[in-house]
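Re: weekly structure request thread

Next one in the queue (145 aa):
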Amino acid sequence: MSIYRGMVLLIVNTATDCIFTPQYVGLQDLYWKLNASGFEILDFPCNQFAGQAPGTSEEIFDFCFSNFGITFPQFAKIDVNGPNESPLYTFLKAKYKGFFSSKIKWNFTKFLVDRKGRVVKRYGPTTKPEKISQDIQRLLQQKKT
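Done, posted below.
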């Protein structure tokens, strides 16, 4: 994760067969508009919710690239809850809990991280990427120190 030091990050657990999968369009749009300003999206497919991220990492990337033209980093599938959860998600959930619980409820939960590595906001799956744009732009305007 050190290669992302000093950047504003949006970290998302995704799935290819989910009602929220079309959010890839909005995510890619944010990426095109804001990446040159120091913004990065980190996409972590997760198959823990109704098996909605089937296939290999390569198949998932091919689907996302072919259907949504994603160009932001997509990582291998991970668990975001439970005994095998990724240490990244353990950290994110500890820093910013959701309503009533730190547990990730579904695909397309989003965490916004500032340039200093602080988790500043958590968005539920129903929050569309375009609704996050102003929050991202505000963080991008802050100094890189």
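The mean pLDDT is 93. The two ends are 17 Å apart (CA to CA).
Next request, please.
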